[in-house]
Each structure stands twice: as C-alpha cells, then as structure tokens.
Amino acid sequence: MPAFSRAQLGIIVVVAGLLLGVYAGRGYLAWLSPQSGTASSPPVFVEITGKVDRPGVYTFAAPPTLPEALRRAGVQEPLPPGETTLPSQTRLEMGERGGYSLNSMSGERLLTLGLVLNLNTATAEDLEALPGVGPVLAQRIVQYRQGQGPYQKIEDLLAVSGIGQKKLAQLRPFVSVSLPAE
User: Contact at 8 Å (CB) between 43 and 61?
Assistant: First the structure.
C-alpha cells in the first residue's frame, strides 16, 4: 500500500466528504417537489387481501380508486364500479363474486410499515401491537377515550392508569392524535 503524506490524506478526506455530501443531497432532493421546492406528500398504503392474484400492501403516490388498487393486485375485469378513493391505511378485502369490504389496517401492520396509530381510532387489539402494551392497558386506553371523549394530545395518556412519564416516552414515537372530522 502506498504511503500518503498528511496533505494528501487531508485532500482525500475532503474529497470523500464532498462526494458523500453530494450523494446525500441527491436523496434529499428526490423528496422535493420540482414545482414548489417543498416536500412531496407521503405515500398512500393500501392492503389488499382475499380473492386476488397478488395480495399484499401496495404503495400509491396519491389515494387510488377502487379499480386502480384492484388492478395492482391482479384482479381481472370486470372490476367493481366506482370512483371511490381509498385513503392511506385502508385494508381492502375481496370476497367471492366481486364483493369487497373496506376496513383499517391492523395496528401491527401499521407499525410494521413505520406508520403511527391514531389514539382516537385504534382498537384495543391495535394498541396491543405497541411496545409494552398488553390487553389490560390497551383496554384502559380505549375505555378512557370512550368515557372522556377523544384524546386532544398524546400527553392525555398520562390520565390512563398504568401510564406514567416513562411509558409515555416509550409510546410517543408510535402514536398520534388526529381529532375526528366534524
């Protein structure tokens, strides 16, 4: 291996740093919208199960219509009619003879995708997917919401028996609070 002087090593380190910066900047710029220079909207996740050729979780740039989603999962014509758009975190289950049902993805699936659980819509079963939350604590979180109304902020969890500052800090990265539309 050739020996380099301190000056040569310094130049190599600077060039390597510049190349790394350019590479990292390219990744950041890919998330920017070319028109406005602002971050693009997050992807839309739709889980498709049941009587389809390719069940799974699909990513869309914008909320897809029902036929668009089903085509991605390999469903052949005729597709169910409609221009209903599917919001992110939808679970679409195809039944026999073209029937379907729409639900929310499970809490476990959402966390696997790196998404958060909304404390105002999550079921007790969904909440059990959170770290350190078992069936009893999950039920308490739901009962508090049913008795006191929707959570206004994540810190409202402190009013639930069994949740202190330490548990709240553990849960914070995995939960959100979105108030229901009026």
Answer: yes
Answer for the pair 94, 51: CB distance below 8 angstroms, yes or no: yes
Question: What is the tens place of the pLDDT at every residue in 64-97?
Answer: 988 889 889 988 777 776 678 899 999 999 887 7
Please, which residues bridge with residue 100 across strands?
94
Beta strands in 32-152 (DSSP E): 44-50, 56-60, 90-94, 100-104, 117-118
Closest CA to 69 of 102, 42, 20: 102
- Tens of pLDDT, residue by residue over 89-104, are 999 998 877 788 899 9
Q: What gap in Å lies between CA 167 and CA 48, rounded to an integer?
A: 34
Structure tokens at 10: 């310094």
Domain 108-176 has CATH 1.20.1250.20: no
What are the phi and psi torsion angles at 16 (to 5°)?
-60, -40
| pTM passes above 0.90 | no
Q: What separation, in Å, do the N-terminal and C-terminal C-alpha atoms of the chain show? A: 70
Residue 133 gets the label, from left (phi > 0), alpha (psi -120 to 50) or beta, of: beta
